[in-house]
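hiii so um. not sure if this is the right channel but i have a protein structure encoded as tokens and i wanna go backwards to a sequence. like what aa goes where. can anyone help
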């Protein structure tokens, strides 16, 4: 198989080449969806000299089929449900609520681990470049979009290496711009489009955030 993407860092460099108009722009903030989106967002932020931070959301995976999302949650009580998955699999309210509670615990853990005492960045009136390592159903990125829209940004731009065309079409109706390097009609799994799709660790996230130029840390 010929992989379209070498790894997350190289994908970030490719995406940055489509975003050069935002280089050194005041009022533009790069936000990554941890963990996989962080190496990509790091490359974008470094190359464009933009501040970098995190937008914490959690996928709600179907038990025994964790890669299949029936929804996602974000901070500030945001929840997105993929109704077609719920109906097709006849998922119960009790099961969905149990998964949501478990994922909220993990979201809060990551918030403490990655951000510490630093609050969620002020996105009001700013242009947000929202980054992930790929989009399958769109539930997770939609939760991130809703989380951000509650804070009234000036614009939201999604930058991802790979996503199905129908999902990109849906997202274009929700945000101001979608940049996607590859739009396969049969995605199957995001990992199949990378030569190296090693799991991004908590330690890598912390290291990348710590290594960002101090002048580019969001406030």
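sure thing!! here u go:
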């Amino acid at each position: 198989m010929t992989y379209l993407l070498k790894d997350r860092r190289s994908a970030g460099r490719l995406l940055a080449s489509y975003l050069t108009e935002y280089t050194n722009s005041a009022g533009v903030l790069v936000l990554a969806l941890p963990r996989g989106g962080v190496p990509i967002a790091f490359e974008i932020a470094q190359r464009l000299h933009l501040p970098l931070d995190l937008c914490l959301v959690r996928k709600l995976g179907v038990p025994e089929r964790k890669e299949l999302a029936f929804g996602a949650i974000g901070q500030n009580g945001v929840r997105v449900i993929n109704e077609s998955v719920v109906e097709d699999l006849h998922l119960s309210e009790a099961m969905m609520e149990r998964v949501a509670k478990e994922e909220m615990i993990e979201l809060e853990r990551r918030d403490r681990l990655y951000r510490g005492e630093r609050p969620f960045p002020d996105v009001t009136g700013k242009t947000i470049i929202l980054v992930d390592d790929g989009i399958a159903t769109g539930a997770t990125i939609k939760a991130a979009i809703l989380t951000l829209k509650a804070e009234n940004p000036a614009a939201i731009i999604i930058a991802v290496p790979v996503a199905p065309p129908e999902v990109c079409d849906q997202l274009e109706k929700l945000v101001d711009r979608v940049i996607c390097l590859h739009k396969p009609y049969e995605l199957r799994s995001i990992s199949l489009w990378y030569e190296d799709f090693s799991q991004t660790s908590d330690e890598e996230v912390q290291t990348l955030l710590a290594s960002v130029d101090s002048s580019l840390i969001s406030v």
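oh and The CA atoms of residues 161 and 181 lie 5 Å apart.
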